[in-house]
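Practice problem: Large ribosomal subunit protein uL4
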Amino acid sequence: MKVQVKNLAGTAVGDIELSDDIFALPVRSDLLHRMVNWQLAKRRAGTHKTKGVSEISGTGKKPYKQKGTGRARQGSLRSPQFRGGARIFGPVVRSHEYDLPKKVKKLALRTALSAKAAEGKLFVLDAATAGTHKTKELAASLTKLGLGSVIVIDGQTLDVNFSRAAANIPLVDVLPSQGANVYDILRRDTLVLTRAAIADLEARLK
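Answer key — structure tokens:
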């Protein structure tokens, strides 16, 4: 698959051949769904916690005698039916992460790249570099290119000026090639890849 390459000024500077094994796969929404769920589960803090009976501060004395009061028998004021008592089967600190096969992760990333290409929302940039760290100039360039909600994936290292300028622009993410992931690609409308990013991704995913 051949795609036109442009620079930040919007000028065409050539073409690039994209691998069909990575950018022309059938789009499987079930696979993307599995991958996004895995990513979101992995990043959950899991720090929610409630107190059990043994953790509640209070007396261990029986509230009142067993018989003769006409009330239901009780053994502790720390029981869940009392105000300030414990919560039974409440959440505990834990990890929400689970395993996903490496082959599934790779296939999901290839599918996400193919989905953007199939939608016509894949943009290839010659290089993600900026002469200044000023946000105004980069924002003007992106507006000229018609890029609003966008994720820019560069090579193994990011240009400092470009990443600093993009940091203040809403709905614009900049990632190195090793940080490319399904969730971030899908959450933005347009995917922008540099020549270096394409070389790295094809080497990583083939």
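Discussion: Residues 102-118 form the longest helix (17 residues). Students who identified this feature from the tokens alone can consider the problem solved.
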